[in-house]
Every structure is written in structure tokens, then in C-alpha cells.
Write a structure and sequence with these properties.
Blueprint lengths: L1 H13 L18 E2 L3 E2 L3 E2 L2 E2 L4 E4 L17 E8 L5 E8 L5 E7 L2 E12 L18 E13 L2 E13 L5 E6 L2 E8 L2 E8 L14 E4 L13 E3 L3 E4 L2 E6 L6 E6 L3 E6 L8 E11 L4 E4 L5 E5 L1 E13 L5 E8 L11 E3 L4 E4 L6 E3 L19 E3 L4 E8 L8 E7 L5 E8 L2
Parallel strand pairs: 20-27
Antiparallel strand pairs: 1-19, 2-13, 3-4, 5-12, 6-7, 7-8, 8-9, 9-10, 10-11, 11-12, 13-14, 14-15, 15-16, 17-18, 18-19, 20-23, 21-22, 21-24, 24-25, 24-26, 25-30, 28-29, 31-32
Length: about 425
């Protein structure tokens, strides 16, 4: 009943105005509604669908421990990342009589109902551990905790079960949320099982690019990691067809085949006065993961209609003296811009792609930077295109050295150069 109470508390947040606006009503023609209830198992179809995580525990005098443990109890603490920058707090109590108790809470607050004793042998065979090694007989248990995530602009935690067991040392707590979401979809003219696994182990099933989407394409009840596993994404290219997929943290999903048609992307570049073009190699990547390469200026690429980004660019130009330069750009896949697809290719239309316009040079330093004596400040030089590609190197006249160096000077208020250094763009 305690978890039911927490679910009812969360319900007003989950069903707030607009929370489910992007999912069509069940029964609506071609709505693509798919029920994906939670299956509290570790595996399906021969595939291990768990994602164990390590929580590193350490004493921390700044944290007020949960109440109810006797004097002399030793405490260690750790955190587990949830979805949307939410955190599950973990406290491990070592009581004077040798017992171990696990306490949990969300975002710095302990919940008195989220507590469980870890018992010797309780850690055996969790999260796919099938070995008979004596080391698997560790302290552990299945615990009831609240998986934290952010939904409809509010922090929420829903009741979930997880396996928790001590690792090779008392400072390592292994953690694995139990379960996956499973249902059926219309796929290639037949009913097929669809499964979404928590690929990054944060307790949520709606993390684009991190969670795992499985489809039993041949209906044999087994999952093949090569042909039937995909990264969960709003758009997926499977075979020759494109599908849209929307999965909220709770409630039904939406799965629908898309007939987007085709459009054209035209590479356009006009060199500065006195310059000329030599060569170009550009890669265009769509939301479905498809890649298309252009190898000449003003080339037209026939691509499925949709959203795209330029993923890489190599550009050869002639300067005013007719000397060749070669510039290479790549996209920083670790930043927020890697998830942006600013190029919209319309169906039966043409979109001009300008990969080398509106260049932006930056040092990363604010214009009002004030340095204090004895302090260090890191300056990162970058040259970025309008599409978010960063210059990695530049070669002049086909020579075997890079020209991707820039000089930065530190001047005082009178303009006197105090210090000078060179740095690359990459």
C-alpha cells in the first residue's frame, strides 16, 4: 500500500494539463497507441534487459542520516542519477550488531518508507549474475524505492523495485532497476513484441539515444542483438521504412509508420572575392540516423523529407594567390548542439545547405572578464560554422603540417601586450 500511496500522490503531476498532449486518444483511427505496461522481470527472449550501476559510498559528515538507527551506527552515502537531473539518495547503515540497512530518498530528502535490510546471500544471481562463485553470496536484497524523474516540469518519483547488493568492497553498492516495458505493435504486416529497456540504468524508459528498443521482427520469441535492437529515438529507420516512436515516462506509447516522401538538399557555397573552390566532402545526418554524403559544390542530394544536421565537413579552397587550403570541421557530439537538427528538408521541395557561412570565432571568455592577481583562467579558442561544426585543422598548399594555430594576446587597459600564447582550435 505504501507504493500505491506514492503513485496516487504523483498522479496529479502526471495528469496535469498538457502532460499527455502529444499522445492520441485510444481508439482514434491510425492513432498508433501502444500499451507498454511494466514487466517486472530481468530478461525476455534470451536477452538480459537489466542495466546494473555502481553507487560509490563514502562517509559524509555534512549529511544528516535517517532516523531510527542505534547509537554507534556507521553511515556511508551515495547518489544514483535519475532522469532529468533528479537524484536518488542512498544511505547504508552499519549497525553495531553487524546488520546492514539501506535507506533511500529523492533530491536530498530521506523517505522513512524506503528502507530495507541487506542480508548475506541476498545478492546472489541479481542482474544476470549466474556464476557459482562464492563471491556472489553477498549482502543484498530486492528493495522498493522511488525511481526519480522530471515530468511536466515537476520532479516525480514512481514506485519501482530494484536489486541492490554490495560489490567487491563495502564502498561499492551495485544497483539495478527491475523490469522493462513490453507490448505489441503492428510491424511489417504482423503483430510483434516490442520491448523498451532502461539502457542507462536511471529508472526511466524515455531517454532518447540511451534506452534500448527491441522488436521481435521474426516473431520467434527471441531477441537478436544485431537485427532486433535499436536505440530509442523519436524517428527510427528500420529496413526501408521510417517509424515515429513516442514513449512518455508513464502511460501508453505511440508507434506509427511514416511516409515522409523525399526532398532535395542542395549544397551551396560562394567563395569570397578573389577566391575559388577546389573540393568538398560533407555528411548530412537525419534524425533517423541515415547519412548522406556530398562530394561536389552545388550538388543535389535526394533524401527522405525530415530534419537533418551537417555532421562533418572538409572544404578545399583557393586563396587570392591561387594557393590551395584545406579545412576540416567536425561536430562535437558531446554537447547540446549534437541533438539539434536545424535543416528541414521539405517533401517534394529543395533546401539549400550552406555549410560554410556565418563563421563565429570565440575564445569562450566573457567580454567583461576581470582577472584577479594569482588566479588562472582557461581560454578555449574555437571557430564554428552556422551549423555548429568546429574547425579541427587547416592545411596550406598541401603541406604536411597544420595551420590551425591562433595567437591570443593579453593586454592591459592601455593596449600594452602583457603576455602572448598560441593555441589550436581542436
Amino acid at each position: 500500500m505504501k507504493n500505491l500511496r506514492k503513485l496516487l500522490i504523483a498522479a496529479p503531476f502526471l495528469m496535469a494539463s498538457g502532460a499527455m498532449a502529444t499522445v492520441a486518444a485510444p481508439g482514434q483511427p491510425n492513432s498508433g497507441i501502444v500499451e507498454l505496461p511494466l514487466d517486472e522481470s530481468w530478461s525476455w527472449g534470451g536477452a538480459d534487459l537489466s542495466a546494473p550501476r555502481v553507487i560509490y559510498l563514502a562517509p559524509d559528515a555534512r549529511i544528516k542520516p535517517p532516523q531510527g538507527r542505534p547509537t554507534g551506527t556507521k553511515w556511508t552515502y551515495g547518489t544514483l542519477d535519475g532522469a532529468g537531473e533528479q537524484k536518488l539518495n542512498i544511505a547504508l547503515a552499519h549497525t553495531p550488531d553487524g546488520r546492514l540497512f539501506l535507506h533511500g530518498g529523492v533530491n536530498g530528502n530521506w523517505d522513512k518508507e524506503w528502507t530495507k535490510e541487506l542480508k548475506l546471500g541476498g545478492g546472489k544471481n541479481f542482474a544476470g549474475d549466474k556464476s557459482n562463485d562464492i563471491s556472489t553470496y553477498k549482502f543484498g536484497s530486492v528493495v522498493d524505492m522511488g525511481a526519480p524523474f522530471f515530468w511536466n516540469n515537476r520532479p516525480v518519483s514512481l514506485p519501482r523495485k530494484a536489486a541492490a547488493w554490495l560489490g567487491d568492497s563495502p564502498s561499492e553498492l551495485m544497483w539495478s532497476w527491475q523490469g522493462f516495458r513490453r507490448g505489441e505493435i503492428e510491424f511489417e504486416g504482423a503483430k510483434r513484441a516490442i520491448i523498451v529497456g532502461d539502457g542507462n540504468g536511471n529508472g526511466s524508459f524515455s531517454d532518447e539515444g540511451a534506452d534500448q528498443l527491441w522488436i521481435d521482427r521474426n516473431g520467434d520469441g527471441k531477441l537478436d542483438a544485431v537485427s532486433e535492437q535499436f536505440a530509442a529515438a523519436p524517428l527510427l529507420k528500420i529496413g526501408e521504412k521510417t517509424y515515429s516512436f513516442y514513449l512518455p515516462p508513464v502511460g501508453p506509447a505511440r508507434w506509427k509508420e511514416i511516409d515522409s516522401g523525399f526532398g532535395k538538399a542542395r549544397v551551396k557555397f560562394q567563395p569570397a572575392a578573389g577566391g575559388g573552390t577546389d573540393e568538398i566532402a560533407m555528411t548530412l545526418v537525419g534524425q533517423t540516423g541515415e547519412a548522406f554524403a556530398a562530394h561536389s559544390f552545388n550538388e543535389e542530394l535526394k533524401v527522405p523529407a525530415g530534419k537533418y544536421q551537417t555532421a562533418s565537413l572538409t572544404l578545399g579552397l583557393f586563396d587570392r594567390n591561387k594557393l590551395p587550403w584545406r579545412f576540416s570541421f567536425v561536430r562535437g557530439w558531446g554537447d547540446e548542439k549534437s541533438r539539434l537538427y536545424p535543416l528541414e528538408i521539405p517533401r517534394d521541395g529543395t533546401k539549400e545547405v550552406k555549410p560554410f557561412e556565418n563563421l563565429k570565432f570565440s575564445t569562450g571568455a566573457p567580454t567583461n572578464l576581470k582577472l584577479k592577481r594569482g588566479t588562472d583562467y582557461t581560454v578555449r579558442l574555437s571557430l564554428e560554422t552556422e551549423q555548429g561544426l568546429q574547425l579541427t585543422n587547416a592545411v596550406k598548399n598541401h603541406q604536411n603540417y597544420n595551420e590551425n594555430m591562433a595567437r591570443i594576446e593579453l593586454r592591459d587597459a592601455s593596449g600594452k601586450v602583457l603576455s602572448m600564447a598560441t593555441s589550436g582550435f581542436a
